[in-house]
Structure formats: structure tokens, C-alpha cells
Amino acid sequence: NGHVYFSLKDKDSVISVCLFATYASKLKFAPQNGDEIIVLGSIDVYPSRGSYQIIAYALEQTGKGDILYELEQLKKQLALEGLFDESRKRSINLYPNAIGIITAPNSAAIKDIIFNLKRRYPIADIYFFPSQVQGENAPKELLQAFNLSQQYPLDTIIIGRGGGASEDLGAFNDEKLVRAIATSKMPVIAAIGHEIDSTLVDYVADKRASTPTGAAELATIDRREIELHFQDSLEEMEECLRNILEDQKSHILDSKEEMNRLISDKISMLRQKIDLRSEQLASLSPKGILKRGYSITLDSSGKPIIDASKQKQGNKIKTIYYSGETISTIDEVKGE
After folding, report:
1. Pair 44, 55: CB distance under 8 Å
2. What are phi and psi of 269, to 5 degrees?
3. Most-buried pick from 141, 284, 286, 321 (CB within 10 A)?
4. Of 132, 127, 125, 166, the residue nearest 149 (C-alpha)
5. pLDDT digits (tens, 9 = 90+) for 170-208
6. What residues have CB less than 8 Å from 145, skipping those under 6 apart?
């Protein structure tokens, strides 16, 4: 509706300001975070919260505030030292065994982070290091919680808070905290819960998330992605096995055909050898000799006659041919 709401802040205190549209339309500048201004207005009570606020009628810009100036100087110094360099940023292990969380106890932030970690990657252990995230003691408690987290076997640390006004983020600009995070043993995800303003913790962290839920998503892989990956791997494995089986089947069929051919060739070769040996044996057998025109003559006792001089005239002899035989009587015996 054209109204302007902001806070005035110094090192020790803060108060809300409301500039209604009637007066806001007359402004000669657009107020920005860190501006130093003079406000003309009156003190009022905001009933729904029971808190004081200033109802402003006019604003006058006088320059940049000391708080913003000091923050910019610290930011430049840390940047020169290389604490914000992208080259030192580490990747996040998306399959963590343990995750540490640094934020306020009983806050929406811790509930959101734990809920989403359990939803996405329930097998990871969660370590909680409670700390105030705004107020005078917040920087000290955040540093203590961070130092404690370094003593545990964590894969990732999430540090942050839920949404809040820019003036409530001072604890995350603390120099000691930023320098400690730069030396972290494990990657750090900043989840300060704001989109527009950036704190020094955002710059030094390995990753930045705009919300606690976003931090949980950066810290883990979704189990549904793992399930899909396993399903894809299973299907790929089944396809590989099918291909292997098909290749083996084809190889077996080819081997079978080759074996049958080799066996057939071997049998044919052996048959040829047998036929040749049979012919050779047949040619050396008595029948084979008789077939070539020779004959065998036996005496009366059936013994082969190999010496004619031992035969006498009138002896009965038998002559065997390839086909048939004859019985004869010796008429004359001649020597060699």
C-alpha cells in the first residue's frame, strides 16, 4: 500500500519505524540498509505485539552508518586474506554418515532441517549443537557450538537460522566465527534463512542455502534418487545379463556347429583310414593272394606243401583257389 517499514539500529539497541504512504511518497531518496538517517516522528505502541515503534513523518539521509561501514571494512579484509575464495570451497558429500546442525533449539529451523534430512536421507546420523542465533550472546554461543562440532566425525555442518529481519543477522557477521568456519575440518553449509541480505558466514561457507530446507537438500541426495538410480542400475544389469546370455547362447550354438563339423570331419577321416587299412589287410590275407591268381596246395594231412622234393608219386594233394578247390594225384615229382 506504499507504506515503508524498517528498523533503526545502533550497536546496543533497535526500534521499529513505520512511515505511512502519505509521507513516504514525499521522500527524496530510497532508504537502504546501512543508511544513516535523521527521523522526525512520534513514539507509539504497536498493540498486537505490545512493542514501541516510531511513527515517522519525514526522513533525512546523512550518510552511511558506522555499523555498515565497519562490516564492509571487515568483509574487504577477509576477502583479501582469501577466506571467501571459490578455490577453497569444498564439495558436499551427498552420502553422509553424519551431519551436524548449529542453530537455535526449539526453532522452526531445526525442525525443518531434521524433517527434511530424515525424509531425504534417513540413514545419516544427526548431531545437534544448540546456540542462540541473535542477541548479545549469540556470537559467543555460535562459536562455542562450532568449536564443539569439530570434535565429532561429521561429513557436513549446517549452520544458520530461520527467517528474520536484517538487523537480527549480526551474529553471523562475527569475525571470530567467520575465521573459525574458514578452518573447519568438514564442509559447511550456511542456511541463514534470507534471500536479499548476505552475511559473512554466507561468504566463507562452502555452500549457501536460502532456507533451512534448502540446506537439507544441499547436504544429502534424495533417497528417491537413490531408488531410481538402483532401479536404473538393476535394469541396466538385467540388460547386460540378457546380452551376455544371448552372446553365450550364440557362442554355444556356433561351438556346437563347429564341434559337429570337426567330429564329422574326424569320423570321415577315420573311415577313410579304416577303408585303406581294410584294403591293405585284404591284400595281405590268403584270400587276397588267391584272388590275384595264386593257389595253395595241401598234402594228405592238410599241411601246405612248400617243398616238392618231399612228395612222392601217387600222393593225394588238395589245391585251393580263390574260388573252389581240386583233389589231385601226383604223377611225377621234380626238384629245383
Report:
1. yes
2. -65, -40
3. 141
4. 127
5. 899 999 999 999 999 999 999 987 666 689 999 999 999
6. 102, 129, 130, 131
Query: Per-residue b/e over 288-325, b at no fewer than 16 CB within 10 Å?
Result: eeeeeeeeebeeeeeeebeeeeeeeeeeeeeebeeeee
> Would you state the cell numbers that stand for residue 317, as one nine-digit string?
594233394
**φ and ψ of 208, to 5 deg:** -125, 135
pTM: 0.58
Place of cell 559467543: 140
> What is the rounded distance in angstroms from the CA atom of residue 187 to the CA atom of residue 58?
47
- Are the CB atoms for 89 and 96 separated by under 8 Å? no
Tell me: the pLDDT tens digits for 116-157?
A: 999 999 999 999 999 999 888 999 999 999 999 999 999 999
Nearest CA-CA partner of 184 in 212, 215, 139, 151: 151
- Cα–Cα distance for residue pair 319/247, rounded to 1 Å: 72
Helix axes 175-182, 66-80, angle to 10 degrees: 20
Q: In 3-state terms, what secondary structure has residue 305?
A: coil
